[in-house]
Amino acid sequence: MWMxxxxxxxxxxxxxxKARFAPHATIIAGGTDVVVELxxxxxxxNQVLIDITRIPGLNRIHLDDQGWIHLGPLVTHNxxxxxxxxxxxxxxLVRAAWEVGSPQIRNRGTVAGNLITASPxxxxxxxxxxxxxxxxxxxxRGERTVPLRTFYTGVRRTVMEADxxxxxxxxxxxxxxxxxxxxxxxxRRGQAIAVVNVAVVxxxxxxxVQDAAITLGSVAPTVVHxxxxxxYLRGRPLTLxxxxxxARRAVEAAQPxxxxxxxxxxxxxxxxxxxxxxxxxxxxxxxxxxxxxxxPLLWGDRTPYDASLAASVSHPPxxxxxxxxxxxxxxxxxxxxxxxxxxxxxxxxxxxxEGCAEGECGACTVLLNGVAVNSCLVPAPAAHGxxxxxxxxxxxxxxxxxxxxxxVRTAAVQxxxxxxxxxxxxxxxxxxxxxPDPETVAxxxxxxxxxxxxxxxxxxxxxTALQEAExxxxxxR
Length: 477
Prior knowledge:
Uridine Diphospho-n-acetylenolpyruvylglucosamine Reductase, domain 3, alpha+beta, five-stranded mixed sheet
């Protein structure tokens, strides 16, 4: 699907590669959009992919001395969800990241990638715009900083030049007098593209709104500020009457279209409804209840780390050297495929299934360096130097994993196609949260679809495995 694949060891090398191969060079980190676009022919086949995931330090989240929060270009949505700093000082972004895709998507997809994709329906753009974020773009020619509100020039269009890399996202941390919220309307609980989303950031003083930012997504070619609503809200007390009028005025900024997810009239109505609800939750101090205190990340019992290589790697000519289910593999072909097809075609491990090839169904879920991911969205070269576990490798000493045994006993297998993905995700959940409640289990498995609608038996199987775990039966890998 790509002409060449480079894994640089430094940012400087990545910049040189971007300049050398522009305009055919594409930076890849999560790959949740890029791989799908390549597979579907929406990008030319002569693409050179530059994988920056092995460059140390790019997944850092930190607060600087001036009170600005910085996100590196490898910060994923689940990094955001798991960050205590962002929960305290940038909650609208946390809630937006929590609404993205599924655990597997959030484990790969980066906030930087979400911004660069430039869809007006993307979830992290409205809160970052409401937080007055800026992005830093770097090339071999130099560096520039661009306010996010001027970063976009249209649907899926930005001011980025072909040789530039987004190296930093920065915004002022919310202070003690500031509150923020984010709401999204999708057509289902997980894996939903926004019909409408709304972000709100308020500065409050003695019950009055001193400053307000209200941003709307999926209602115009780019994410927009509801300027009339913001102006009306400033200087007024945050009362139910003021909230209702603010919500009505927010609709003035919406210029939606009719599409498969909703009509223009419906979107306008939902702008008003979501703005009202977001402000009321702030008034009633209920906004933070929307994100679990211990969300299922499918990281297991450890935090993802930088698996940095000692030197730069390019494919071809170097082979892919990796460990799968504890066994060393050397692949001299398959570098142009996804990890899913590397496992199936080159390694002969056919337990991992292809259900959609778009990261929608979770049938291809595997563990990459301990983290649950959709292998259909991971380029095969990302396996170089990595540790991978598939459904075949979950058990120990020729014994099934307790989750696998529970699936057998509860008849949780119908056609069986989705089963490997469910088992891998459930096993990772029980390693991470030993005693999850039913809602946590549902959230954890939101990235896995059963086309036979066998969810009751699947949830029963996970509950059975949980009971075994409480008795010390569940093994950790």
